[in-house]
Amino acid sequence: QVQLVMSGGGLVQAGGSLRLSCAASGRTFSSYAMGWFRQAPGKEREFVAAISWSGGSTYYADSVKGRFTISRDNAKNTVYLRMNSLKPEDTAVYYCAARNWGWDPSYHEYDYWGQGTQVTVSS
Question: Is a pLDDT exceeding 90 seen at residue 29?
Fold first, then answer.
């Protein structure tokens, strides 16, 4: 069992930056691939970024590539999402998620979820 507690998010102007954090409970955090997803009003939840259990591999949606960076600190049981050059279209509720068998771009494949945090980018 893994519990994920998110922090960060908020309101920022276009072009600004935010960092989201996702702290996991449990001693097996380092065995999980971690993902970030987002969901805008009226839209399906979409993949943003993922990182392998070791942190050695990262994956990004085309819409955020070059602007967002996912990282993890297994000693702190925490995964991060650094978001730079934010755009109004990045506005959504962001979620972190854990998967026991490697990363996957489909949110259906993840086992555990954070509570979600609102990110709003004003133009």
Answer: no
